[in-house]
Specification:
Blueprint: E1 2-7, E2 13-20, H1 24-28, E3 34-44, E4 55-65, E5 71-72, H2 76-80, H3 88-91, E6 93-104, E7 107-116, E8 131-144, H4 151-163, H5 165-171, H6 173-218, H7 222-231, H8 237-253, E9 264-270, H9 273-280
Parallel strand pairs: 4-8
Antiparallel strand pairs: 1-9, 2-3, 3-8, 4-5, 4-7, 6-7
Helix pairs in contact: 6-8, 8-9
């Protein structure tokens, strides 16, 4: 196994703040003031140092935090139906569905499974699998009431917010869904641009492979042709084309570009075939 530099964590992105209207049933229990939710997104693992590495979003995890930044149990009813309110076509995703409610020490997280649109992915010209990524959505609730100043009042308000969280989110369903749609789209925008660059890279690789095969096939030097086939460990030019394309794609995919904002650590980067691939190239 070869080792390489990886940014293990991610880069949290601070999104917008959305005001939430308090439903009448919560007001009847004594919840007043201004209530809002702040969205923070994090795409993990970070692959910014490998701009040519194919990625695919496989999971979205959503966590809700109280105004005191304590995880709270996600309202299952609202978040289980959330995928139906998302425009997957705009996001470039095939399908999003709720897969589980993951229990945490002080609350719960809603986990969604993501199926990507294969037609938007680069053509599968090699056996190199893409890097799965997860998108974390943190919803931080914020509450203020100028008529309460005691700690007991703040605690009582947080109890009411958690108790009526399902009603609060349902009362703001369209606004919350639109805000999450926007934040998810922003998080995936860079990935869409990277896929466009990968398509250009694939086109260039096809030209390189085609030219290389043409030179070898048209050569009248038998020793030269034999050496090329033996070096790539193939029997004929048809196998040589596939082997060259796969080797070239692996080398370009694992091109490392240092990023100042990334925290890097050493870890296994690629199966041991990569060292052999680089030597062949």
């Amino acid at each position: 196994m070869r080792t390489g530099c990886w940014c293990h964590g991610g880069h949290p992105v601070l999104g917008g703040s959305l005001p939430l209207s308090i439903p009448p049933q919560a007001m009847d229990q004594g919840l007043f003031g201004d209530l809002s939710v702040h969205v923070v997104t994090l795409l993990s693992p970070c692959v910014e140092q490998y701009p040519n590495l194919p990625t695919r979003l496989t999971r979205i995890q959503l966590l809700v935090f109280s105004p005191s930044n304590v995880p709270v149990s996600s309202p299952s009813g609202f978040f289980q139906t959330l995928p139906a309110a998302l425009d997957c076509q705009e996001l470039g995703l095939g399908r999003v569905y709720c897969s589980s409610l993951k229990e945490l020490p002080h609350g719960g997280a809603t986990v969604y499974t993501v199926e990507a649109e294969t037609r938007d992915d680069p053509e599968p010209t090699s056996s190199l699998s893409s890097m799965p990524q997860s998108l974390l959505l943190f919803l931080f609730l914020q509450h203020s009431d100028p008529f309460t100043s005691q700690l007991t009042d703040a605690v009582a308000s947080e109890v009411l917010i958690e108790r009526h969280l399902e009603d609060i989110l349902s009362n703001n369903r369209k606004a919350v869904a639109a805000a999450l749609q926007t934040e998810i789209r922003k998080s995936l925008e860079a990935e869409k641009n990277k896929k466009m660059n990968q398509k250009k890279l694939l086109s260039a690789a096809d030209v390189i492979v085609s030219s290389t095969i043409s030179i070898i096939s048209c050569s009248s030097n038998l020793d030269f042709r034999t050496t090329c086939l033996n070096h790539m460990k193939v029997c004929d030019t048809r196998d040589l084309s596939s082997s060259l394309r796969e080797s070239l794609w692996k080398v370009t995919s694992w091109r490392f570009v240092p990023r100042s904002g990334c925290y890097t650590a050493q870890m296994d980067k690629h199966p041991e075939r990569e060292e052999q691939t680089r030597n062949e190239m």
